[in-house]
Design goal:
mainly alpha; 8 strands; two-stranded antiparallel ribbon; Transcription Regulator spoIIAA; six-stranded mixed β-sheet; SLC26A/SulP_dom; 26 helices; single chain; 2 domains; symporter activity; transport
Length: about 600
């Protein structure tokens, strides 16, 4: 079994420590199947589980996990775990559950199989030892497993029988122990002697293997945080109080650090036990303290009874628990909803099964980060059109009824602009000049794009590379007689643009509060371009007309015209336009 020496101690000392330092009122911490698997797999490669060194290394691992969690809590680094997506966790948990179940097969089959976190060596070992198969443990384990599954199903499907789900493991232990005491089957292995009494204080030692435990420390910490903080936040939301994830990290770390001095192995928040706490009305950390007191009584008075528990009964409990962790339904759900997340789930599950837990997690996280970087470097950019009868501008792909204007392209950038995505954004803007020109339906009839309006309200941040890219874009547009207008940048973005000189370069009068304000001004100038071109007739080329217009653009800026008149293409002169809407003034020139 997984680190059986520490299950009781992990369910005793850390509970009291967490009650002091933790922030969740419902979460129950202690040993977890997934954490136990990670501990067992890494330590099994170093030393046999019956060796005293095994216990010492597990205690050292607990201390390392606790220190890392405390450091992350103090430095407020809990946000790092957000880069591990739900799909990765689900795939990893599914594969780990399968490995856990197969690793317990030896207690059912009656012979030893290889310890491994990879599925292939386990299956090979099971097949090669088939001639040593023993019926008694298989029959007992199968019966107990069937009883557990039946009780779990009844507890889930019928509300008045939900107590059966919690009683399942206890029933399994009682049935197994009673059978062993009555029949004394020699072919069924029992737990054996368990030290009686409370754990004594001891300082962790055997740090010579600490370096080899670092990868597992990182994995256990990540899994522990995701499980504990995830369930703690969910329960906090259901019970109407705020939860500080960094304090939660520190509480878990303190529980593990101090627990390591009392022979505990890595503990974390348990989904199942926390759910039981919540369902039974736990409102404060006192529920955990009471659990600890019960554990204390068990350690003092009930350990002689545990000697006769068959290992196949405990294996049945573990297998019953991990069956619910096989989250194949998540994969079925992801396939039609998100192919990207389905791919993440599949990659993580397969690599975990065939290459081990640590490699599986690393590859899964690596792909998650790769997808995040790809999305960040290729942000969503939308061409906006005006919804009929409103001054609202929305994505023309999402709202086909939205219309655009001749000579103007309105673009919304839905992400921060920084060094990794500036090239992509510039390429898309060039592309939209051609594509959008074919979609225009309103306003004065002109032959090409003269204005590009950048809606920057979703842009929360820009860096110096983005500033340089905007300068280059401005010069490129200027050489082709295209003017940039910027709408609704937030305070920090506007400050960066101002400090870098981009506000002066583009012109203060081309910064607006609303997209509609920018469009009104641009429509006025598009009308003016059309009038100048018509007035020049054949005496000058379109290029000369455009050049002279842009040279005098600042001087010629008149008052805004009626939008209805501009949409219909009537020839109102800029000097005749009446300024009726103060909100159409530039962002940097608002009048009081």
């Amino acid at each position: 079994m997984y680190c059986g020496f520490g299950h009781a101690d992990s369910g005793f000392v850390p509970i009291f420590i967490y009650a002091i330092f933790g922030s969740s009122r419902q979460i129950s911490i202690g040993p977890a199947a997934l954490t136990s698997l990670l501990v067992s797999n890494v330590l099994g490669k170093i030393v046999d589980s019956s060796d005293a060194l095994y216990t010492e290394l597990a205690i050292v691992l607990t201390l390392m996990v606790g220190i890392l969690e405390c450091i992350m809590g103090i430095l407020r680094l809990g946000w790092l775990i957000r880069f591990i997506s739900h799909s990765v966790i689900s795939g990893f948990t599914t594969a780990s559950a399968i490995v856990i179940g197969l690793s317990q097969a030896k207690y059912f089959l009656g012979y030893e199989i290889d310890r491994s976190s990879e599925i292939v060596p386990i299956i090979k070992s099971i097949i090669s030892g088939a001639d040593k198969f023993s019926w008694p443990p298989f029959v007992m384990g199968s019966i107990i497993l069937a009883i557990l599954q039946t009780m779990k199903h009844l507890g889930k499907s019928r509300k008045h029988l939900k107590f059966l789900r919690a009683m399942g493991p206890l029933t399994a232990v009682i049935l197994g122990t009673s059978s062993a005491k009555i029949y004394h089957p020699s072919s069924i292995t029992l737990v054996g002697d368990i030290p009686q009494g409370l754990p004594s204080f001891s300082i962790p030692k055997c740090f010579k293997h600490a370096k080899s435990l670092i990868p597992t420390t990182l994995v256990i910490t990540g899994v522990a945080i995701l499980e504990s903080v995830g369930i703690a936040k969910a329960l906090a939301a259901k019970n109407g109080y705020e939860l500080d994830s960094n304090q939660e990290l520190f509480g878990l770390g303190a529980a593990n650090v101090l627990g390591s001095f009392f022979s505990a192995y890595p503990t974390t928040g348990s989904f199942s036990r926390s759910a039981v706490n919540h369902e039974n009305g736990a409102k404060t950390g006192l529920a955990g303290v009471i659990t600890g007191i019960v554990m204390c009584c068990a350690l003092l008075f009930l350990t002689p009874v545990f000697e006769y528990i068959p290992l196949c009964a405990l294996a049945a409990i573990v297998i019953s628990a991990v069956i619910s962790l096989v989250d194949y339904e998540e994969a079925i759900f992801l396939w039609p909803v998100s192919k990207k997340d389905f791919l993440l789930w599949t990659i993580t599950a397969i690599t975990t099964l065939f290459f081990g837990i640590e490699i599986g997690v690393l590859i899964g996280v690596g792909f998650s980060l790769a997808f995040v970087i790809h999305e960040s470097a290729n942000p969503h950019i939308a061409v906006l059109g005006r919804l009929p009868g409103t001054t609202v501008y929305r994505n023309i792909q999402q709202y086909p009824e939205a219309y655009t204007y001749n000579g103007i392209v309105i673009v919304r950038i839905d992400s921060p602009i920084y060094f990794a995505n500036t090239s992509y954004i510039k390429d898309r803007l060039r592309e939209y000049e051609i594509v959008v020109d074919k979609l225009t339906r309103r306003g004065p009839q002109v032959g090409r794009i003269y204005f590009v309006v950048l809606e920057m309200s979703p842009v929360t941040y820009i860096d110096t590379s983005a500033v340089q890219a905007l300068k280059e874009l401005h010069h490129e547009y200027k050489s082709r007689h295209i003017q940039i207008a910027i709408s609704n940048p937030n305070r920090n973005v506007l400050l960066m643009l101002s400090k870098s000189g981009l506000v002066e370069l583009i012109g203060k009068e081309w910064y607006f509060v609303r997209v509609h304000d920018a469009v009104q001004v641009c429509l006025q100038h598009v009308e003016s371009i059309k009038e100048d071109h018509m007035a020049s007739g054949s005496d000058s080329s379109p290029e000369e007309t455009e050049s002279s217009f842009f040279k005098s653009l600042l001087k010629q800026r008149g008052e805004d015209s009626s939008v209805a008149q501009l949409e219909s293409g009537t020839n109102n002169k800029p000097s005749d336009l009446k300024h009726s809407d103060p909100l159409s003034e530039p962002l940097l020139f608002q009048k009081s």
